[in-house]
Design brief:
The protein is an alpha/beta fold. Helices cover about 35% and strands about 20% of the residues. It is elongated and about 60 Å long.
Length: about 325
């Protein structure tokens, strides 16, 4: 069931951010309007931190919100009194949307502003709700709701369609599926052929008799993809050759899922949906960085190296109360 109001979801064009905003809107019970937004320049983004600290919130630093400026001007020219629009929420995820969400909410009387991820550097108290990952060590504030994993916008229908599409390609048994999801290196992780070979050998030894299924990603190095391709999988998706997405089927069907540890989005999805035991393949660099905290927090809570699934019902209830839902508690 959806609320009578609406959500304006600001997107910076990054799929991972956009999907988390959509998940937030869905959790609040709102239909949403997607609005692309970006700063006019890196300088304007830098300026937004100063302006926000000074209490100055203006959409003039941004591109994409001109339609809202035009509507406000039209009302003023007509001498119309802008009516309150209770139930309107503005949502953003990521540093490209934090200031924009707050500034746009200021222009809509009665609107609430909610963001996902931690808006470090901005005035935290002037957001109505912040859904902040625990690995960011967020401040303990009344408007900060700590969550253990990224939000995932998927639902039962999404997974049903994903399984059906997978079964059009794979006609083997699905009662003993073990999935392997291979990402790629980033600033806090590595991925070498030697490391991957050791992990794959371990996986094959530990799961004899299972239907072993694998997918690589757009971030997987070519030499690692070639290694993965050489193993005797029951099913394999090599991203450089085929962009089909088998992950929804892996999540739904697998009894065990191995995910490279830098893939926070995939780990979050695996720990939220399905019933698989989730194992993080540790390709992280040493040090107390946020990827390490993310995996260790999931492991300590039993989501990684265990079958416990993330349940955000209590966190979403708090978020709804902060965003003005009178039925939340």
């Amino acid at each position: 069931m959806t609320n009578s109001g609406k959500a304006i979801v600001l997107t910076d064009g990054k799929a991972g951010h956009e999907n988390q905003s959509k998940a937030f809107a869905r959790a609040l019970g709102f239909d949403y309007q997607l609005v692309p937004v970006k700063f006019k320049s890196p300088f304007h983004k830098m300026l937004s931190y100063l302006f926000d600290r000074l209490g100055i919130r203006t959409v003039g630093l941004l591109q994409g919100l001109e339609v809202f400026n035009a509507e406000t001007q039209r009302r003023r020219e007509k001498g119309a009194r802008e009516s309150s629009q209770p139930g309107t929420v503005v949502i953003g995820t990521g540093s490209g949307t934090f200031y924009a969400a707050k500034s746009l909410a200021r222009k809509i009387p009665g609107a609430k502003c909610g963001v996902v991820l931690y808006p470090r550097g901005y005035d935290l108290g002037s957001f109505d709700c912040i859904l902040a990952p625990s690995f960011d060590n967020p401040a303990k504030l009344p408007n900060v709701v700590e969550i253990p994993a990224n939000l995932v916008a998927n639902d039962a229908d999404f997974y049903e369609k994903g399984v059906a599409a997978f079964k059009e390609r794979y006609h083997g048994a699905t009662d003993n599926v073990v999935g392997v999801i291979v990402g790629g290196p980033n600033k806090c992780s590595t991925m070498t052929v030697e490391w991957m070979k050791t992990r794959l050998d371990e996986i094959f030894v530990a799961n004899k008799g299972a239907e072993l299924c694998v997918t690589t990603s757009r971030r997987t190095p070519a030499d690692v993809e070639a290694l993965v391709d050489s193993y005797p999988w029951a099913y394999k998706l090599i991203y450089s050759k085929d962009h089909f997405n088998p992950i929804p089927a892996f999540v739904q069907l697998a009894k065990r899922l191995y995910v490279t540890a830098e893939s926070t989005g995939m780990l979050s999805e695996a720990c939220t949906f399905g019933s698989a035991e989730v194992v993080a393949l540790d390709n992280l660099k040493p040090g107390p960085h946020k990827f390490r905290r993310f995996v260790e927090n999931l492991r300590a809570a039993g989501y990684v190296d265990g079958c416990r699934k993330v349940d955000l019902s209590a966190e979403f209830s708090r978020a709804r109360a902060l965003m003005g839902d009178p039925q939340a508690h």
